[in-house]
Amino acid sequence: MKLHLHLADSGLSLSDLSLRVYEGDSPVSLSSLSLSPVSLLGTDYVLDGIPSLETVGGLTVTFESPEGVFHAYRFGVADRQPLNVIIPIREVFSDPINALSIRIFKDGVETVPDDADVVQLNPDGEYSVSGWASTPINEQWSVRWIYNGLVYSHQWTGTTGNTGTFYQSIRAMQSPIPYKVDGDNRQLFSCNFIATIVAPTSHFEEEIEEILKVGPGTPPIPPDEIVYLGFKGSLPDDSASEPFNVIIPTGGYEPDESHDTKRENRGLQIITCATDYETARDRAEAVWHYLDGLRAVVVSL
Predict the structure, then answer these.
(1) Do residues 45 and 11 touch, judged by C-beta distance below 8 A?
(2) Within a domain: residue 273?
(3) Which residues contact 203 (CB under 8 A, 6 or more apart)?
(4) Per the confidence metrics, is the pTM higher than 0.85?
(5) Which residues pair with 75 in a beta bridge?
(6) Are residues 173 and 281 in the same domain?
(7) 112 to 97, 103, 140: CA distances (angstroms)
């Protein structure tokens, strides 16, 4: 893996940068690293040979350039949902929490300093900060420190769907259209959606039903109404219970993947049925307006 460094000086070597690589808070061998200039000025470099991102704690590269200016580049989990944050200050403090004013924030609220677990990693300094139990979906975290009068921070947003399935967004592919008339001469309306989810699920249809009944705001379907899933049976001949709704998975398209996250793009079709045209249309429109653009919903079944 490669990292591009844009620095102020030309003719630098690895020894000039005093590079260090950590997996979590453990040092990684530097034997595979190489540094080469890549620009005419000679001040832009490529650092090659960084280990792969298939690590539990993520990778952090620290270095010093120019003297007294410290840098940290974070990869994988260390960048997105770190188990720890490395502060690349190469100075020894007997009380680094107070000397560096280290604080941890969750959703903008400062935690007490005792929550910060700070470990000195080397004889000349560099500190690993931890102390957060988890980073669930959409929690906003930051670690802040102050050095030589300047404020630094590392921030991230939680993406761990450990409380259910996280629906990042639901988007309509079109507005509802009259689909056909069924064998009982009832009007069917159809609308297709794409749901982008973070945590894998094996109960997609049931979760969509849950959103339509008890989701945020004013859901379009009453909690006690029957919603039909897939093609497992015909709709009843009961005009008093109309309109009926059917949720059908349609496959969607390929997931979006990054180094350590995967978002599934699930497709679904919602069919609304009623003897009266306006009744079917109005329910289909209500479902469409409710689901289209819905974001950041967690479903736990």
Answers:
(1) no
(2) yes
(3) 165, 301
(4) no
(5) 59
(6) yes
(7) 11, 8, 17
